[in-house]
Specification:
single chain; 24 helices; alpha/beta
Length: about 625
């Protein structure tokens, strides 16, 4: 890993900076609207002259101006911590601001300053819902600054997308921006040089959907730039013969159903790999007549059956995907959200469809692809913000050259951490979870039960139903109702079961009775493959100085131990206590290491592919 300069790890002295912002803010508050407009015009000219390096004094004046506009339009006076978060983003860093500290407004302050300087700003959010919500919420602020803002929606046609990206500030999910970029690359055909791109844009301003990659501000930066970076973004189209595709997938699934683990194949669940034994290869050869003629050759038939085995044994309904309207829809393992526009590559999606007995879709042909790592490095300026960045500080610097700056909390945290309990069996765990929720809800405290998968949410819901505990379930299958469910999760006595999606970009507001009873209590039912995600879930409690608490109620049968713990760790976990806690921590560390290695390997492969394709003149 490339070493970082020590100065990159420390925030610059912030007291002088916030004093400057506050002093200017008090002066700006005395201006009438006409005088404020004149000040805006002069500030915009100075920021454009300074270009990418405005300096601390000019940056302080710009932030004070945007803060004054926020007071005038939204009736909100930004906290000094939000000013520091915006400053870190504008200085090209990832600001770690704790959950509940007002990241939405802090990001808007940074976006307003950057756009006043004449740069097109892409404010990247975790999903389309948050993009649309935040663009509407912050539109009065941007309008007062004389800036235009819009949000990208899934399924927009080319003309609508081009109109949105012409705005000064664009809110969009990372996938929408990256896929728009790939569509522009494909539209260029074989001409990929920067000079050619500029010439075409000069001659025809409608040549591209977006006018370049100038300034990216990434919300939930660790989720977008780290977690989602394990999967390449692929722009594809369906090929020709779907009948052969379907026959191959169904035939391979029938063969896979006859094979036995240990005898015919071995699974490496931590690496998601399937290996056929000699007996397995012989069995596949004997059953090859169930495949189309072109797939009966040794390597092809074995690849098809390995894919079918992966679909059967390593891709579970309710965890990795759901069925909706007779279609297989992928669930994002980090957010718990459904990704209806995504499909697995290399025939895996068709193998899962064959396993579930639904209509088989065509395998898609790749037109262009890129990783988030390489995509974000194309921007002239990148900054980000999240509640959990310090665990990934090394990777942020190694991949993106972004230092991590920790922002202090505005109010002292009152969150309590309760003792972790680990049961030997999953059934015992769910009984404990339900009993804890029942007792706390009866005492008037709202309870959030955090799960990793749709299947785990169903198990928690079933345990609560057996005790007669009223509750709401927020999972990938109910994502359209997210805002309504989360809005009610802070009521006194409310019990909410939620997959990871509740931990990103949503705010649980306590009512007076809930606050008096002790605030929100979070129950973590599984450790995640990254400590950051655990912290995101725990951070739902005790926000902005509110009371709250959290605990982990786990099981030795949890998937993290099954996949990454190893046989000895699983045995240790069954004894409970400190031994089980150490086993869990070791499994989590192993998962983080393997996922980081996978991201590095993907980036290296992506860079090599781009280098080779640069000689062919084909799009990425």
């Amino acid at each position: 890993m490339t070493s970082r300069p020590r100065s990159a790890l420390r925030a610059r002295p912030w007291r002088t900076f916030t004093w400057r912002v506050r002093l200017r803010l008090s002066r700006l508050g005395q201006l009438d609207e006409a005088a404020f407009d004149a000040h805006l015009t002069g500030l915009a000219h100075r920021l454009r002259r300074a270009r990418a390096h405005p300096g601390e004094r000019l940056l302080a004046e710009a932030l004070a101006t945007v803060c004054s506009a926020a007071e005038r339009t939204l009736g909100i006076r930004p906290y000094w911590t939000q000013m520091l978060g915006a400053r870190a983003v504008l200085n090209g860093a990832v600001a770690e601001m704790q959950t509940g500290e007002g990241k939405t407004l802090a990001l808007a302050l940074a976006a307003g300053c950057a756009a006043l300087g004449g740069r097109k700003v892409h404010l990247i959010t975790a999903n389309d819902y948050l993009a649309g919500r935040d663009a509407v919420t912050m539109r009065p602020l941007y309008t007062r600054l004389g800036l235009t803002v819009d949000a990208v929606e899934e399924g927009m046609d080319a003309e609508s997308r081009r109109r949105v990206f012409s705005s000064d500030i664009v809110y969009a999910s990372g996938k929408e921006v990256a896929f728009t970029f790939l569509r522009d690359r494909v539209a260029m055909g074989s001409r990929t040089g920067d000079l050619d791109m500029r010439m075409r844009a000069f001659l025809d301003d409608r040549a591209f959907l977006m006018p370049g990659l100038q300034f990216a501000i990434v919300d939930e930066a660790d989720s977008v730039m780290i977690d989602e970076a394990r999967t390449p973004l692929i722009l594809s189209v369906p090929p020709g013969d779907i009948e052969v595709e379907a026959e191959t997938a169904r035939g391979a699934d029938r063969i896979a159903a006859t094979l036995t683990e240990g005898r015919h194949f071995r699974l490496d669940r931590s690496r998601h790999q399937v290996e056929l034994t000699d007996r397995g290869r012989a069995a596949v050869a004997d059953a090859a007549d169930q495949l189309p003629e072109g797939w009966r050759v040794g390597p092809l038939r074995e690849d098809a059956v390995r894919t079918a085995l992966s679909a059967r044994h390593m891709h579970a309904l309710g965890e990795h995907y759901i069925l909706r309207d007779g279609k297989v829809e992928i669930v994002d393992e980090y957010t718990g959200r459904v990704m209806p526009d995504r499909s697995w590559s290399a025939g895996l999606h068709q193998a899962v469809e064959a396993k579930e007995g639904v209509e088989i879709t065509a395998r898609r042909v790749t037109l262009a692809q890129i990783t988030f790592q390489r995509f974000f490095r194309r921007y002239l300026h990148v900054g980000g913000m999240t509640g959990t960045a310090r665990e990934a500080a090394g990777e942020f610097w190694e991949v993106y050259r972004l230092p991590v700056v920790s922002i202090p909390t505005y109010r002292r945290s009152r969150r309590e951490t309760w003792r972790t309990r680990i049961a030997a069996q999953a059934e015992t765990k769910w009984r404990r979870v339900a009993r804890r929720a029942e007792r706390l809800a009866r005492a008037g405290r709202p309870v959030l039960i955090g799960t990793r998968t749709v299947a785990a949410s169903d198990a928690a819901s079933a345990a609560l139903q057996r005790l007669g505990v009223p509750h709401r379930v927020l999972s990938a299958e109910q994502d359209a109702d997210e805002a309504a469910i989360v809005a009610e999760a802070g009521r006194a006595g409310a019990v909410t079961v939620a997959t990871n999606m509740a931990g990103r970009g949503t705010d649980i507001v306590l009512d007076a009775r809930a606050r008096a009873a002790g605030g929100l209590h979070v129950i973590m039912t599984e450790r995640h493959t990254a400590r950051r995600i655990d912290r995101q879930l725990a951070g739902r409690a005790g926000r902005q100085g509110d009371p709250g608490s959290w605990e982990a109620i786990l099981s030795a049968e949890d998937p993290l131990l099954m996949e990454f713990g190893g046989r000895l760790a699983r045995r240790m976990a069954r004894f409970g206590g400190a031994a089980a806690a150490r086993a869990m921590s070791a499994a989590q560390a192993r998962a983080e290491t393997r996922h980081a290695r996978a991201r590095r390997q993907l980036l290296e492969l992506d860079e090599k592919m781009a280098e080779h394709l640069s000689f062919t003149g084909t799009p990425e």
